[in-house]
Design brief:
heterodimer, A: seven-stranded mixed sheet, B: alpha/beta, five-stranded parallel sheet, 32% helix, binds iron/sulfur cluster
Chain lengths: 215, 472
């Protein structure tokens, strides 16, 4: 996995709460058996005026001029500023894959849906929870000044504005450690293979009906 | 020290390792796999040269992409080549790794969350995961069950464990008795309407109270299914006699001595009387009316006797904007009566409501009646091949067909419209599924979430009606 330590990037504010994963990447694009290539279809129904189909060249499609990511000032954004309960709905990891493929590295919101939040960390994407009023402030600043950038430091757990104002955020130690070092979760877990085996042996004795049934 | 909640018990029983940083390794008893969220996980295994840890813990079936007509053709019957590749890929992966799969032609094929319980592959006390957020369904059996992403599917395949942080405990208690014509679906929609789509975020919800105690397993599955729509990855109901009776005699269920030992353990799977919850919400079951969603989020629900809200009455500006946007998308007017919403299609199916009891409930309403002429389509999609067979044995298919509803083959179908079943732009659909997000059932489609009985009543009337009027 790609490590994440620090990032500075252009901020795109998406002023809408309860953005669900169907909205982030509509179902017709879930048919791919790959992890990449979802970027052009990120927010497909909001971004384009026509109906998106898999395997189509999206560069030729009519853009919705009202959608925030289509505005020239937000081209190249890598920090997504969002509202509460971002990423609710389906567990599709295609949602973080699409955000990542588009070029986002950080998502800041007052709250995230649990599964989405978790999926981000598996893909080198950093979701940051900040208090609602701080998020409001960042929205105001991002909308007020073209080229507004934020600096995120995962080591220090801070988000810093261009004016030098710094906000700290919380992230649990295990996820932070894996992300900072780009660790493969599975590899880390397999270091405890012996422990898993002994748990399993015990369980085979106490709950034998859970093993081999129906095979 | 306070007693343990059901969630605490399940957690403790599956804890392999508590790490100092607060994360924990939790052992997974069962993984269900389907074609959409598994291909990249299997590919990951191959790339890292890893093998599945425990093959017999896995069970697979294709459901999201399968057509619901012409199934005699098998995989060849999938017209969309991209869908076909996904179903074929699942088959190849399961064959390569030796994982049991109910393939498209197998009568046991169906929606993952229907076939697990049906086969007894879902047993009380298990930890169950699937790359699908509605895995919470299995919590109805006193399981710790939740949806995971594809990286975690790979993680469970490779290690039989999941890295987790313990969630908080929440109790949603529904007291009293439900009125006639009010079903499990109305209960869960009313709960989501009350606590909101983020009301359970970070929590494992246990559903309890007299209403849940009196509910069938099908009903409990419907309620737990939509825990995720209340923001909770996990929904659960304590094990009781209803649970144990349901599990008995199923293909994967234990027998003989193992059965007795299992039942003894299962009987302990309830929250202790002195257990403490971080959050408790209570509802009065007798006050719950048949529900209809009017907006684009499952919390946007109203009683069938009520009206679409007026955004002008909402004080919170973000909520007001949300309502305005939803009404615009849904093509509804503020204060419009729910019963004035006209429908183009009706969909009875999905992992929320496609079990035999749901079909019986819908059939009881349409029996001897005809689908409204104004409707373009009304279809019934059973949750599995076995549900279909049982319904046919009971003659439910004839009741639906005589009334003018289509009788389809099992799969997710129009719940998310990955196969050929979808809504056209601007069409209103009464749907027994679980999500009414924009475009969920087709580009520009307008979904209204309801119970099977309410969907059936709407099919007859061509607009929403209070099903209780038809039942009298
Ligand atoms: S029926 Fe719908 S919600 Fe259930 S698993 Fe299928 S697509 Fe998901």
């Amino acid at each position: 996995m790609r490590a994440f330590t620090q990032h500075q990037g252009l901020v795109a504010p998406m002023d809408r709460s309860n953005v669900d994963t169907d909205m982030i990447i509509p179902k017709q694009f879930l048919k791919s058996i790959k992890r990449t290539g979802f970027g052009p279809n990120l927010f497909d129904e909001l971004r384009y005026l026509d109906e998106g189909k898999p395997d189509q060249d999206s560069s030729q499609r009519p853009l919705n001029p009202d959608f925030v990511l289509n505005q020239p000032r937000y081209q190249g954004a890598s920090v997504l500023l969002a509202r509460s309960n971002f990423g609710c709905g389906s567990s599709r990891e295609h949602a973080p894959w699409a955000l990542d493929d588009y070029g986002f590295r950080v998502i800041i919101a007052p709250s995230f849906a649990d599964i989405f939040y978790n999926n981000c960390f598996k893909n080198g994407l950093l979701p940051i929870v900040l208090e609602e009023k701080i998020v409001d402030q960042l929205f105001d600043e991002a909308e007020a000044s073209v080229g507004y950038q934020l600096t995120v430091d995962l080591e220090a757990k801070t988000v810093t504005t261009p004016a030098g104002e710094s906000f700290s955020f919380d992230v649990d130690d295990f996820r932070r450690h894996c992300l900072l070092n780009g660790l493969d979760d599975i590899g880390v877990t397999l270091e405890d293979a012996e422990l898993i085996k002994s748990y399993e042996d015990q369980r085979r004795k106490t709950a034998p009906w859970l093993f081999g049934a129906g095979q | 020290m306070a007693g343990k909640t059901l969630y605490d018990k399940l957690w403790d029983d599956h804890l392999v390792k508590q790490r100092e940083d607060g994360s924990a390794l939790i052992y997974i008893d069962r993984q269900l796999l389907h074609e959409v969220t598994s291909p990249q996980a299997f590919e990951g295994l191959r790339l890292a040269n890893r093998k599945p840890w425990r093959i017999d813990a896995n069970l697979a079936t294709p459901d999201h992409n399968v057509p619901t007509t012409d199934r005699a053709k098998g995989i060849e019957g999938i017209v969309d080549p991209v869908s076909r590749i996904q179903v074929e890929t699942l088959g190849k992966n399961c064959d390569e790794f030796g994982i049991l799969e109910f393939k498209i032609m197998d009568q046991r094929q169906g929606i993952v969350h229907v076939i697990g319980p049906e086969q007894g592959a879902t047993l009380p006390g298990m930890t169950i995961v699937c790359g699908d957020s509605h895995t919470s369904t299995h919590g109805a059996f006193g399981c710790l069950a939740h949806g995971i992403g594809t990286s975690e599917v790979e993680h469970v395949l490779a290690t039989q464990c999941l890295v987790q942080q313990k969630m908080k405990n929440m109790l949603v208690k529904v007291n009293g008795k439900l009125g006639t014509g009010v079903t499990a679906k109305d209960v869960v929609l009313a709960i989501i309407g009350k606590i909101g789509t983020a009301g359970g975020t970070g929590h494992a919800i246990e559903f309890g109270g007299e209403v849940l105690q009196n509910m069938s397993m099908e009903g409990r599955m419907t309620v737990c299914n939509m825990a995720i729509e209340a923001g909770a990855r996990v929904g659960m109901v304590a094990v009781d006699g209803t649970t144990i009776d349901y599990v008995k005699g199923r293909p994967f269920s234990p027998t003989g001595e193992n059965w007795d030992a299992a039942v003894k353990y299962w009987r302990t799977l309830h929250s202790d009387l002195d257990a403490e919850f971080d959050k408790v919400v209570e509802l009065d079951g007798s006050e719950i009316m048949p529900q209809v969603s009017w907006g684009t989020s499952p919390e946007m629900v109203a009683d069938v006797t009520g009206n679409v809200p007026d955004p002008a009455q909402e004080e919170d500006p973000i909520k007001r904007e949300g309502i305005e946007r939803a009404l615009k998308y849904m093509g509804l007017q503020p204060n419009q009566a729910i019963t004035d919403i006209k429908l183009d299609r009706v969909f009875i199916g999905s992992c929320t409501n496609s079990r035999i009891e749901d079909l019986r409930e819908a059939a009881a309403v349409v029996k001897g009646r005809k689908v409204a002429d104004s409707l373009m389509q009304a279809m019934v999609v059973p949750g599995s091949g076995l549900v279909k067979a049982q319904a046919e044995e009971e003659g439910l298919d004839r009741i639906f067909l005589d009334a003018g509803l289509e009788w389809r083959d099992p799969g997710c179908s129009m719940c998310l419209a990955m196969n050929a079943d979808k809504l056209g732009q601007g069409e209103h659909c009464a749907s027994t599924s679980n999500r009414n997000f924009e475009g969920r059932q087709g580009f520009g489609g307008r979904t209204h979430l309801v119970s099977p009985a309410m969907a059936a009543a709407a099919a007859i009337a061509g607009h929403f009606v209070d099903v209780r009027e038809l039942l009298n």
